[in-house]
UniProtKB/TrEMBL annotation:
This is C-5 sterol desaturase. GO terms for cellular component: endomembrane system; membrane. Keywords: Lipid metabolism, Membrane, Oxidoreductase, Transmembrane, Transmembrane helix. The chain crosses the membrane at residues 6-25, 46-65, 77-96, 137-163. It comes from Pandoraea oxalativorans. It is found in: Endomembrane system. Its main location: membrane.
Length: 288
């Protein structure tokens, strides 16, 4: 696939950019990079890529079946088709990304990406091999139904993710009017922050217009510097622990919580539901 070849060619560019950024911060802020953190990010990336390639072997034929037998339209070729492809996928990425923060089953995979207390270009590599299990691929199925081929779907998803590599940096300040249109490093820094002001904001892939339209946008504030990581911070660089710690906690809650509603919420409620339940006052007449 041509897009995959492009991304393969970009891999040295990504590594070079990480090297340049690490050199840039070496004297300015030496703690910006950590060898253990960077190696952990790289290992998680390799694990993710392996799982992703296996998943595509099953998912692409499914997209092809939807496209061949159930599409409602055939999208035009050329620039018009590409613009439509780009806009539709970017909107669906926004939906996926927002759901990944608000549904615990999806968050169990996505939390890996947010688990570092640093934010640098290598953080973009910090991904989970559990995305196919969580169901990320389901969010692209509407594209096959409305008439985009599997090659187009996979290609535009990869291009969207390639763009997002470059927003994982603290070296670039706000970018003026571009902040109204594109996802920028400043916008994405706020997304990665665990300060209450920034939690569950700025889900943009490429276009930030979706955040502005649907009320999830917040501006990075100099008065409240971003603190990176997750609320329940996990202090480890072990890729296996980082990958499965939330799945393990979720399984424990499903087994131990009483009642089917609680079990359902432990799986598909918002990630903070567990804490809200633990701190809620007991109903009158009830005891623990």
């Amino acid at each position: 696939m041509n897009v995959e070849l492009i991304l393969l060619a970009l891999a040295p560019v990504f590594v070079l950019c990480i090297g340049i950024e690490a050199w840039y911060w070496r004297r300015r802020r030496p703690g910006m990079y950590s060898l253990k953190d960077t190696i952990s990010n790289a290992t998680l990336a390799l694990m993710h890529q392996g799982a992703d390639k296996l998943a595509w072997l099953l998912i692409v034929p499914f997209y092809a079946w939807l496209y061949d037998h159930h599409r409602i339209y055939t999208m035009p070729a050329g620039w018009v088709g590409f613009v439509l492809l780009f806009i539709v996928q970017d909107f669906l990425y926004y939906v996926f990304h927002r759901a990944s923060h608000r549904i615990r089953w999806l968050w169990a995979a996505h939390v890996v990406h947010h688990s570092s207390e640093r934010l640098n270009l290598s953080t973009a590599f910090r991904q989970s091999l559990m995305y196919p299990v969580a169901g990320m691929w389901l969010f692209w199925t509407p594209m096959a139904l409305i008439g985009f081929t599997p090659i187009q779907i996979v290609g535009v998803v990869l291009l969207n993710l390639a763009f997002q590599f470059f927003v994982h940096t603290q070296a670039i300040p706000k970018l003026g009017w571009l902040e109204y249109v594109l996802n920028t490093p400043s916008i994405h820094r706020a997304h990665h922050a665990r300060n209450p002001r920034y939690i569950d904001r700025n889900y943009a892939g490429v276009l930030v217009i979706w955040d502005r339209m649907f009320g999830s946008y917040v501006e990075e504030s100099d008065a409240e510097p971003c603190e990176y990581g997750i609320v329940d911070q996990i202090h480890t660089h072990n890729p296996i622990t980082l990958t499965f710690h939330e799945w393990r906690a979720m399984a424990h809650d499903v087994v131990t919580m009483p009642g089917w509603r609680n079990k359902w919420m432990a799986l598909f409620g918002p990630p903070e539901w567990r804490h809200a339940r633990e701190t809620a006052p007991m109903p009158e007449g009830k005891t623990t």
